[in-house]
Design a protein that fits this description.
With 286 residues, the protein is of the alpha+beta class. The protein has a domain of 106 residues: 2-Layer Sandwich (Enolase-like, domain 1), CATH 3.30.390.
Length: 286
């Protein structure tokens, strides 16, 4: 690993200014779980690291909002989020997803902001949060802006964050009364990268699906909503025929990528199966 300068600003705004200044390659560091690995492999060779550990404590807090939604600081660790009573109460699907994410040692160190900004499509929380309609507050040297989480992803390991911009906070609408679930398929071992991830959030209208948000990940360059599939489910009763039809529409709509975890055609078959399972799992929630 090449030598680097370590900076520790006391505010997130100062950290953003440091990231935007100078010509030397500079990277932010929250938990550093992905960053350190990439530096050790020589993929990244920053001359400066801007540590975020000393910035305002508010950006490491998890709390409920008055409307029942969640406010999660970008420096909250994944374990902080998993254990937070507000998350267990208002968005249990997040807790369920976190319990399958990496291992407890990683979750104790990795931060939400880094997890989202890393933009690896195999990660578990982006599709779940997008399905719930999450937005992110982004801080830069010139101020802040709030955008839907889905809008920060532009490609494999690529985001729309400008130089000097940092994810500051994540706002998640209350899950209930919606029913939500996340399933992933790992083809080699339980702790391997998933071949496919599917997140669903359903609104019910008596015995029918009033509305749906479906997000597929891992087999795509970015977490991707399947809007045609959502329309197929809107107003439908949940029957085996409905789930088969939705699976067929999803397989036709999604552009899935083949890799070491499986071919694109294999992943389309996985999507047909896992979409139905995810919908059934969501409907079992109370």
């Amino acid at each position: 690993m090449t030598p680097f300068e370590l900076l520790e600003p006391r505010s997130l705004r100062k950290a953003a200014a440091l990231l935007a200044s100078g010509d030397a390659p500079t990277r932010p560091m929250g938990g550093g779980t992905a960053l350190m690995l990439m530096m050790k492999m020589g993929v990244l060779k920053p001359a400066r690291l801007v540590s975020l550990r000393a910035v305002e404590k508010r950006y490491a807090r998890v709390s409920a909002r008055k409307d029942g939604g969640l406010r999660i600081g970008a420096l909250a660790t994944l374990s902080d989020i998993e254990r937070a009573s507000a998350v267990r109460r208002e968005a249990p699907v997040i807790v369920e997803a976190l319990r399958t994410l990496a291992n407890v040692r990683v979750r104790n160190v990795a931060t939400l902001g880094g997890h989202l900004a890393h933009a690896d499509p195999h990660l578990d929380l982006p599709p779940v949060l997008i399905a719930l309609g999450a937005t992110v507050d982004i801080m830069g040297p010139g101020g802040s802006r709030t955008v839907p989480l889905a809008d920060i992803y532009s490609g494999y390991l690529e985001t729309t964050l400008a130089r000097g911009e940092l994810i500051a906070e994540v706002f998640v609408p209350r899950q209930r009364p919606r029913r939500a679930a996340y399933l992933k398929c790992t083809t080699r071992s339980a702790d391997d990268w998933p071949a496919l991830g599917v997140a669903v959030a359903l609104e019910l209208d008596q015995e029918r699906i009033g509305g749906a948000r479906i997000v597929v990940s891992a087999a795509t360059d970015t977490p991707t909503r399947l809007r045609q599939t959502e329309e197929t489910l809107r107003g439908a009763s949940v029957t085996p025929d409905t789930l088969r039809r939705a699976g067929d529409v999803a397989a036709a709509e999604a552009t899935l990528l083949g890799d070491a975890h499986g071919s694109s055609s294999y992943k389309k078959e996985l999507l047909r199966v896992y979409l139905g399972r995810a919908i059934r799992k969501a409907l079992e929630q109370r």
